[in-house]
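chain below, 178 aa
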Amino acid sequence: MSPRPPQGAAGGRTMLLAGWLFADLLLLLLVIALGSLPREHRTGATPKPGTPSSPPPSTQPAERGLVLKPCSFTVRTGSAGSVRKQFGAQLRGAGVADRTAGFVLSFGTAPDPGPGQEAADRVNSMITGGFSHFKHAPKRGYWKGGPSGKVRIDVFFLATHDGDTSFPKGCHSSDDDS
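prediction:
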C-alpha cells in the first residue's frame, strides 16, 4: 500500500487550481472589455507622421438608429398594383413616403395559418418590388387570425439622416390598439 499524501498537499493543489481559474476569468473579462470599446479606441495605434489620418469622429457618418415603435398600415389583398397603390397612398398620408424602412413585419389575416402567412409574404414581395425605400429591409410574414383579405404591415423605419429616432407624427401604430 502506498502512503496517503499529507493533508497540506491536497489543500495546496486546490489553491493552485483556484488561482488558474481566477486568472482565466480575469483574461475573459479583459477580452470582453476590449471588445466593447468603440472602434476608434480598439486599435490604440497613433498614425505615423506623414500618413493620412482618418477624419475626426464628428465628421464620420454615424450608424443610423431605428425608430422603436412601428408605423402600421393595412391593405386589402389583391393584385400587386392594387396593393402598391393602397400602401403608397397610406405612406404619403402619414408623411413617411421618403423614409427608409429598417425592417417590416406583415400579418396576413385568415382563419388558418397557412393562407394568412402566404398573404403576408405576397404583400412583402409586392412592397419590395414597388418601393425603393423598402427594397433592402428584412421582411417577415406572419399569420393573424380573422377573416381573409387583409394584411397589416408594421414598418420600423430607420432614423432620419440627422439621427432623429422619434415616432413619425403622421403614423399610427398597432401598439396603440392594445
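The longest helix spans residues 7-35. DSSP finds four helices and four strands in the chain.
thats it, cya
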